[in-house]
Amino acid sequence: MSDPVSALNGAAFSGIATVEEAGLAGMITLRGDLGSKGLGAAVKAATGVDIPTANKVALSDEGGAAWMSPDELLLMVPYTEVEGKLAALTEALAGEHALAVNVSDARAVFRLSGDGARETLAKVCPVDLSAEAFVAGQFRRTRMAQVAAAFWLDEGGVFTIVCFRSVADYVFNLLSNAAHPHSKVGVY
Amino acid sequence: MSTRLAKQGRLIDRSQPIEFTFNGARMSGYEGDTLASALLANDQMMMGRSFKYHRPRGVVASGAEEPNALVGLGNGDRFEPNQRATTTELFGGLSAQSQNHWPSLDFDVGAINAKLSRFLPAGFYYKMFMYPRSFWKHVYEPIIRKSAGLGKAPDKDLIDADHYEHFYFFADVLVVGGGIAGLQAAKAAALSGAKVLLIEQTANWGGRAPVDGGTIDGTDPEAWIEQTLAELAAMDNVTLRNRCMGAGVYDHGYALGYERLSDHTPGEPGPRHRLWRIRASQIVTATGAIERPLSFAGNDVPGVMLAGAMRDYVVNWGVTPGQRVVVVTNNDDAYRTAITLHKAGVEVVRILDARPAGGGALMEEARQLGIRVEPGRAIAKVTGGKRVTKVAICAQDGEGGAQEDIAADAVAMSGGWSPVVHLWSHCGGKLIWDDAQAHFRPDATRPPLGDNGAGFVIAAGSANGAMDLSGVLADATAAGSAAAVAAGFAAKDATAPVTSENEEAPMLPVWLMPAKADIKLRMKTWLDYQNDVKVSDVQLAAREGYESVEHTKRYTTLGMATDQGKLSNINGLAVLADTLGAKIPQVGTTTFRPPYTPISMGAIGGEARGEIFQPIRKTPMHDWHQANGADWEPVGQWRRAYAFVGSNETVEQAVAREVINTRENLGLLDASTLGKLIVKGADAGRFMDMMYTNMMSNLKIGKCRYGLMCSENGFLIDDGVVARIDEDTWLCHTTTGGAERIHGHMEEWLQTEWWDWNVYVANITEQLAQVAVVGPNARKVLEKLGGMDVSKEALPFMEWRDGQIGGFDCRAYRISFSGELSYEIAVPASQGQAFWTALMEAGKEFGVMPYGTECLHILRAEKGFIMIGDESDGTVIPQDLGLSWAISKKKDDFLGKRAQLRSHMADPDRWQLVGLETVDGSVLPDGAYATGNGVNANGQRNVIGRVTSTYHSPTMNKGIAMGLVHNGRKRMDEVIEFPGTDGTIYKAKIVDQVFYDKEGEKQNV
User: Per the CB < 8 Å rule, is A170 touching B678?
Assistant: First the structure.
């Protein structure tokens, strides 16, 4: 086994906001009955957090869980621990209808920070990114210009953006373009 | 002459002179000028020529409604045609060219059309160009192409130097228009706590109020505007944007704002235009009103201008369009222009008021200033070529006889004001006819409806038909409050400011001047300046039977130019109504469509240009491919290597080399783009049996099976190898283009039909990098890398195992799309490149070479394997392709089963897949049709088949092909003909489609 390589190997750009490829993150797609106690316990064991409510992300030091749909979560765990966590999840959920798969390598992850982060995102996503509307802990699956993407905002004011690995280049260029140093909108 | 006045000009800064050029001539203006005001200040009254007759035209308005003063702006990669001089802010170095003239603005050959105007009536093109048919292509079209079109298209080889962006914004209340109504409505809405976005199309706030006068809250309007603007700017819940036009209103409170960031400072870094994509709970349209021209002969001569616009030029920019002005009106407002001109020292030689009794207080004021006012009088005709020289006046209630000539160099006309109802109407807001004002205004009881069935647009101020200061502000206050309440905020008592102004006498509708103007006059009376439509044209259309205003519009082209009839609409339909003997509201208006004025293509495209024009999907090995000669091919949004081209070979040679090498040694294919879907659950087997035509539930764990998927209509939609992973998990390979589509197809059936089945599907396509290791040496290279047992016994054909190869965790499949010994190895995407590199290194001694998609295609075609999209096209069923063996007879049901029982599907008399071999070894043209005996109803030869795949086979060194042929499987060895587009008739023998290794021995070793 060789060292795993993320799609863009840590590319970065700075304009009205700073765009950085965050490197590989452990991610598990979990589908199942989000109301089931067994699933709740398995998620807690894997990530340290309770199942988030709709359009929210729950974060811990080690990872977290994001609400993807009424029967889907995205679990975030350390990259090197995915297989172990996956095995534990599968075992814990053996008695119920559920599906857990490793999607860590299917994704690219970006951090977007700085004063212009909200405006940068609002140029490419049809989402209300005003400070009143989009608060820390919120999670959104949406369209980023021409591709699918999801993002959340943490307490430190940093957006974490998740997209498919194959379009990492496009998303990086798109965000860098939207963060053009002379393109501040001046509303957020 | 038109000239700069010594005083006035509230928007210009006389300490900041600006140089610019018009048709190459150097001119100067001031900071704050528009191009139109600066041209007038330089005595450039004529600004262009008309579209059809090439008549000289001057500026007629001062804002977005301008039909005449269109110019080509800028040079080279910043050139843009059809820019309105009235909405172009002047900047240093501006370069403008007038349009529709050749060879020059002053001397124009096309003006001969005007002399022929009696031969160019309404519907001329429709009537004239019908016959003879051949004339269209060789005579009419070339002439029309040369003389038609407004501005010149930018040079096709240049790329727009600017960039553009979109911005999504959400508000409780969007207020469109930053005049006093918009400001007051925004304030009223914001006081309730609603989040308000106020946008204004010009650089300046306040609209017409500072020009029109009166007092608001005891101060002049300008002071009130400044104070209100400051109040709004201080509120956290208010966003103000000037130079941002409300372009369109769409369903569910969606609106577009077109912000022009650097049109007035070209070359400034940052985006030139920003398209605001706004969602608002409520939209207030405070878009003002537009003055109507009067319809008299010669109303298009340069120097004839809207009265309000002429007032704007004096007050806002300190420019007078003439020295001796005739004012002609049917209402009191135009008196303000006369008074303003008089006070600025310009001679107002006559006010002609079409109303028999004239006007009210403003008329008295004008008379007291010594201006001669003549009630009941009208303009019979304006004469002048490139500039007004003479005005003939007559009684309004007559035919234009008993004229008196007055020397004048400008005419200010006012036919009353029409509310700008465009944005109200875009999404279905209805209008009512206001008899007193002779205009259409929004019908508040029939607004555009939102998702909850309630209205989401409220018109305010003069856009709502309120025509005086007090009415405008009261209406705007109510509109702003109502919008906030409708958006869910508690009503706050917003009070309308106290105003004072002159009382106005009622206006009189005047649709033709004089009322009974004869045909000679009507043929010189313009309705639509930009498209050269005259009163006589609309009357002719009515006589020819055009009753619908929408038909008349298209027949005469009234209102179809870039200004979309902002000035001509009401006047035109009034003429139509009059000719038809109908009432105006019965005739109705044409449809208002977005955008309000044209917006740039750049703004619409936004960021999508250059490297981010479209997403390009890249596999983990993309960069390696790029560095190793990949000749790219788009497959969906993916880029796949068509071939890896060496420095001393052509693409065709590279493909042939790859084919031979893969058959003889070892080839590597990046198969990462193939779709991989996980299907899991207690009902997964049952679900798989429904999705695929063949049986999948009985597939043993560890084994693979090739499967077909059909739509519920029976047609083949995808294929691929399925692997059984464990008791309740299957992995489905789809085609590259099918991954998202088939995932969606599965989810749709699960969510809408079989929602009670316990099945989950996940798309893990991008989690894995997959490499096809193909050729006689495939096993050797894997064994050299070491790890799991890949022998025939441990990993037989059509089975899979998890394990490690060369230290990489992987899943290895023994599947073959080439007919050779073949493995497909899936590793985590983040290790894909490392694994590929390891294979290339280890494979050196076995003659490894990467191969691309064309080699893949040839390898499979030599084996007679079908390709979705080549052999299938949405009308093909598996039975056509000889794939009946993959259609289960045991299953009760699967998607497509019932459809395939229909008589036409079950008909043995269909086109069937066969192999095709040219008699001379040449390559059949792709997509060529086979011709049979006889001809069809159109006299074309009957068609009996077509080529679906065709290649030169390097393995057999001859052309091979597959095709669908009528009753093909019964016609083996028959030679049929394929006429090529190159004039050659290709002859091909029908053969078995498997050209290579018919027994399948090579893949099973």
Answer: no
Test mutation, A72, A79, A105, chain B, max B CBs within 10 A: A105
pLDDT digits (tens, 9 = 90+) for B160-206: 999 999 999 999 999 999 999 999 999 999 999 999 999 999 999 99
Task: Give the Cα separation of B240 and B200 in Å (integer).
Answer: 8
- Cβ contact, residue pair B833, A182, below 8 Å: no
Q: Do B180 and B209 form a contact (C-beta atoms < 8 A)?
A: yes
Q: For B826-849, how does the pLDDT look when each residue is reduced to its tens digit (9 = 90+)?
A: 999 999 999 999 999 999 999 999
Complex ipTM, two decimals? 0.97
Length of chain A, in residues: 188
Same domain, B242 and B230: yes
| Residues B703, B812 within the same domain | no
CATH number at residue B70: 3.10.20.440
Q: Regarding the domain with residue range A26-105, which homologous superfamily does it belong to in the CATH classification?
A: Heterotetrameric sarcosine oxidase (3.30.70.1520)
Which pTM was predicted? 0.94
CATH number at residue B388: 3.50.50.60
CB B710 within 8 A of CB B745: no
Q: Of B433, B496, B11, nearest to B208 (Cα)?
A: B11
**Do A27 and A186 contact (CB within 8 A), yes or no?**
no
Note the CATH number of domain A107-178: 3.30.70.1400
Residue B54 structure tokens: 């090439």
Closest Cβ–Cβ partner in A24, A130, A145 for B170: A130
Q: In this structure, are B188 and B312 located in the same domain?
A: no
* Neighbour count for residue B962 (Cβ, 10 Å): 26
Which residues of chain B are within 8 Å of residue A116 when distances are taken between CB atoms?
none
Torsion, CA B503, CA B509, CA B510, CA B511, rounded to 10: 140
Domain range for residue B36? Answer: 1-156
Tokens of B810: 């992987």
- Is residue B296 within 8 Å of residue B328, measured between CB atoms? yes
